[in-house]
């Protein structure tokens, strides 16, 4: 096989055993999320609690990971989702993925539970299970330093959990290279439940390609295309904030404001967050992930004030919204500190913001009081309070123990009408912007199999205002670039479901794809690169079919493990009832009747049952998932396609 | 005594983002494989704590990609941090 390390390692922490298998066994799923989702479906029994030894967690690279393809440093993490009980996949950048392949492994499947804290050291085709007793209790940044010291090697790459993962916090994530998160699904808590503090890789090997000359020829043209765009110029100037920060070059952009109550932040607050201020005041250097022409990251240094001396890799727009606008906090330094503390404790910014903002929201509405908060006075825009809440959540102290369960369960536990203000999808906390006005974006977030987030089907064409001609040409959807239009968005999201799965399978960052800019990597480009790299001839259509298959495996997992149906694809209360207050999209909200029609079109595009939102017999047969069809049929959750009596409604 | 022009590569340490694309391009040039260790004339490593980028160029194994219009490492440097330095060498 080409462009792979060739080995898959099954690591059982209960028995301290490692079994090796050939990567060839998984070639039908190519790599990355395809292999991860397949393995989680196959290996995790329906009775398994996500934090039990029966759950598995996979580390997956793709065929382009570690090559000179643009933005090829990705690693996929798949597991059973702690927040939703359904599927979880999360994707991180940094340098870990390529290093894992150079160390000799394409996929890791981690099972069981270690008796005492351990970390894995993977190097030169060897896997060592080492004691982590002396680093248990340390944060992510301390962990990386301590392991570097212990192994006397500054070039190791570390994927670690912080105290949040150790304490099984629902929002716990895995941090790679200190600052790159695989954020979703509580995957950090799954590692914590296995007493697994870190996975460490060091690789000195190399990747051989099937047709390196042809690969380089095609790859050079893709690099050139990416570098000759306005999108890349914005990234190079301001990093991730350049395209969707406080205002961007385009003016005042939508934000998630005060627990997603609104999407327009007051101008005087937004002005303090302009990209240029971060650049001039804190930026010490531009940073890029492995082999990445985009340069979305920055290294910041706070040089004055209360937090003088703090240095960190930051600031993604999600983080800025999560710890800034959604908390109504307009202090740049406090936002940067919140970024640092979330990284150190190892917590996902979106779901953490969802529970923190919800707590302040329901306190302000008088639904909870200081008796419940343990004496904390929860006010908007309080930077110290936010840091205090992070602290009690990560260590599960007092009120923090309730919040640590995530916004959905915390609101259900407290009750008192607070559930209405919990911003979650399928049980997973969210923090998103532009969600009332951009209907396709909203649909992609609500139907995401991992419980919200914009990394599944959510398209970016509305933000980019794609012309009707281009929308028609690329997606068969002339309305692809019109934010407030519902029609056509079901078809568009179903396409992006499949397409974004391909990027996660290949091991390439979504920023380098069609999702970010229509000039970037498309399905046929992926096909050319993968074919040249692996020698397995594949075309763009084949890849989209594989994407559809993977999306259906994830959907089937959710049906069997979490019982999700159509009702779970609907937006939370605030998005349907509270409109945007002002600005270009003033008055916009998600209208329930139009939402239902959009859902019809979405299910129809996937050949799923419109009435229930479940998969159909025909759909699973057509894509060759016969075993999965049989499993779902056995539990009575497989409608026939004939029941799609409302099918024609979508075209009206 | 004759003075001959000779070129060498210089990577701007302040500009470099640490992405290692140049390292991979160089490993391809030398060995037709992708690697960040031992196959390339360039070594780049980012220290996550300080944000510093450590760069090493082995000028003795760098042949400036004679079959390319510009060396491959320069072609794949997105922020144009790699330059030729002209040196005079006494022969």
Overview in brief:
With 652 residues, chain A is an alpha+beta fold. Helix content of chain A is 39%, strand content 13%.
Structure, explained:
The complex is a heterodimer of chains A (652) and B (91). By secondary structure, chain A is α+β, with helices and mostly antiparallel strands. Chain A folds into 3 domains: 196 residues, Aldehyde Ferredoxin Oxidoreductase,  A, domain 1, CATH 3.60.9.10; 201 residues, Aldehyde Ferredoxin Oxidoreductase Protein, subunit A, domain 2; 181 residues, Aldehyde Ferredoxin Oxidoreductase Protein, subunit A, domain 3, CATH 1.10.599.10. Chain A contains 26 helices and 18 strands. In chain A, the strands form 4 sheets. Chain A has a 6-stranded mixed beta sheet with strand order 2-1-6-3-4-5. A 6-stranded mixed beta sheet of chain A has the order 8-7-12-9-10-11. In chain A, strands 14-15-16 form a 3-stranded antiparallel beta sheet. The longest helix of chain A is centred in the last third of the chain and has 22 residues. Chain A is globular. By secondary structure, chain B is α+β, with helices and mostly antiparallel strands. Chain B has one domain. Chain B is built from 2 helices and 5 strands; from the N terminus they run βαβββαβ. Chain B is globular and about 50 Å long. Chain B starts with a strand and ends with a strand. In chain B, 40% of the residues are buried. The mean pLDDT of chain B is 91. Classes of the chains: A alpha+beta (652), B alpha+beta (91). Chains A and B meet through helix 3, strand 13, helix 6 and strand 14 of A and helix 1 and strand 2 of B. Strand 13 of chain A pairs antiparallel with strand 2 of chain B.
Q: Could you give the topology of this structure?
A:
The complex is a heterodimer of chains A (652) and B (91).
Chain A: E1 7-12, E2 17-22, H1 32-43, E3 57-60, E4 75-80, E5 87-92, H2 96-102, E6 107-111, E7 118-123, E8 126-131, H3 140-151, E9 157-160, H4 163-166, E10 174-176, E11 180-182, H5 187-193, E12 196-202, E13 207-208, H6 212-227, H7 230-238, H8 241-244, H9 267-272, H10 275-282, E14 283-287, E15 297-301, E16 311-314, H11 317-323, H12 332-345, H13 349-364, H14 370-373, H15 383-394, H16 399-403, H17 406-414, E17 424-425, E18 428-429, H18 439-447, H19 468-475, H20 489-506, H21 523-534, H22 540-561, H23 573-577, H24 592-605, H25 617-622, H26 626-634
Helix pairs in contact in A: 1-20, 1-22, 6-21, 11-13, 12-15, 13-17, 18-20, 20-22, 20-24, 21-22, 22-26
Chain B: E1 3-11, H1 21-31, E2 33-34, E3 42-46, E4 53-57, H2 72-75, E5 82-90
Antiparallel strand pairs in B: 1-5, 3-4
